[in-house]
Design brief:
By secondary structure, this protein is an all-alpha fold. Helices cover about 65% and strands about 0% of the residues.
Length: about 200
């Protein structure tokens, strides 16, 4: 699989954006609201799919995961390393690959409308939640020390807190992606980027 220079550059840009999004509260402390950090990883994973398409979007997220696993501190709280795999929340990191792919796939195959882009973005967010939450549940049940009284229902209740901000950010990612589709991505140097996926 050979990537063009433009594709490598854009994929690298999204790896950097994911690292920033994971640690945005360290850069901008006021983005902690009610004790809940507003990270931008899901936003950028969705945007990667919308902008780069299914193939390159997924590749950029794979590179992000691999960069973190080899020890570069690109995960939340500036962490990294192979030991991240055993953390209960690692499933959310893995899910970014599927989030970007699904979002990109839907926007490639359907009409370029506001509704489609928002729907695709929300679908990507749903994949992020489903994969990450189920991974977290099984991680706590199989190898991590689960909190007392931990249940499958409780795992999902934990996700209620970040859900509103992720819905808002997913919609914004879809709208931003559509805007880019109609402006930057419509230019000659970018028009074949998504069709090559």
């Amino acid at each position: 699989m050979k990537l063009r220079t433009t594709e490598i550059t854009l994929a690298g840009m999204f790896v950097a954006l994911m690292a920033i999004g994971a640690n945005i509260t360290s850069i901008v402390p006021f983005m902690v609201i009610g004790g809940v950090p507003i990270t931008l990883q899901t936003f950028f994973a969705i945007l990667a799919g919308v902008v780069l398409g299914s193939r390159l979007g997924a590749i950029s997220m794979m590179v992000y995961v691999l960069v973190g696993l080899v020890g570069v501190p690109v995960f939340a709280q500036f962490t990294g390393g192979f030991a991240s795999i055993i953390k209960p929340t690692f499933g959310f990191i893995v899910s970014f690959i599927f989030t970007a792919f699904a979002t990109g796939y839907l926007t490639e195959k359907m009409k370029k409308t506001t509704g489609v882009f928002v729907f695709a973005s929300l679908a990507g967010m749903a994949i992020n939640y489903a994969f990450g939450t189920n991974w977290m549940y099984f991680a706590y049940k199989i190898w991590a020390s689960a909190p007392e009284g931990f249940t499958y229902k409780l795992a999902w209740l934990w996700m209620v807190v970040p859900l509103p901000k992720d819905i808002i950010l997913a919609v914004l990612a879809g709208l931003m992606g559509l805007r880019l589709e109609r402006t930057l991505l419509s230019r000659s140097q970018f028009k074949n980027l998504r069709t090559a996926n």
